[in-house]
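Deliverable D4.2, example record:
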Amino acid sequence: MTTFDRLRLVRDMVRIRCAEETLADLYRDEQLMRTPTHFSIGQEATAVGVCAATRRTDVVYSAHRSHAPYLAKGGDLPALVAELYGKATGCAGGRGGSVHLVDHAAGFGGSAAILGGMIPVAVGAAWAFAMEGAPRVALTFFGDGASEEGVFHESLNFAALQRLPVVFVCENNRYSIASPLSARQPAGSSIWQRALGHGMAASRIDGNDVFAVHEAARAAVESARAGHGPHLLELDTYRWREHVGPNWDEDGAYRTHAEVASWIERCPIRTAADALRAEDAAIDARIDAWRAECAEEVARAVDSARAGAFPDVTDLLSGAYEPQPLAAPTRRNRTDA
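Output generated by the structure prediction step:
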């Protein structure tokens, strides 16, 4: 990977961090975004490192923590902001909110709040790619909690059986809402090893090292594209904010300030900057410039969203499934049988 490529990964993380921190503050202070929000602040390396390894024609699906994968895959920032404000110019027409983002042009197939719900959708997309003989890969992001759902194992089993071009991306941030891994999974077990039990390739990566994530994702995606079957990536990371919402929640019932602070010290942006400093002495100045540039970009998107119109009530059912009435059965003669 060239220095230019490595800088681009850092810039993408800075952009996502800046966008989410701005939106989190506005969400808290304005009270105008009437949608549950799950921020990825602190987890930017997973989405950026993985999505940078994909092609435009590859399709990404995400769970409820969807902003970072959406933007990393090339989703439209103004459309994301408008969606959070519930406006018609949102990427889901203002109907889906934070957890239901979509941008087919960018290769973001969609996100959903149902735990583990998009895992089989990605497998279905990969099955379609395989049947069509298309050189495309499906990827699905989910948390460690989703690995405890039955559909996780069903999906891995089917993907391995059919050798489908799908990459499972587990963002292991150690908590399912407020329940730690130790309360949910047996000691000594790991998510990536469960994938090995299904006969597929799997690996565990430092999810706060964007360069390591990218290299692992690139290998997994290209292996799947070449017809070698699915791959699971378990990426160790950590969310800084509360499970849902814009606030901090350390010193609460389930994690301490010291724990959160220890992970902030492992900030993926800082880690990447430190790794690049020897080859680019201007990296800190670059990051400051990117932050300023992103702040202006987000401000424009927010102004546009605030000024936008809400969806028209006459379009309430647009895009919804509308069953057609069954035709009346016709009488047939015996000779018609």
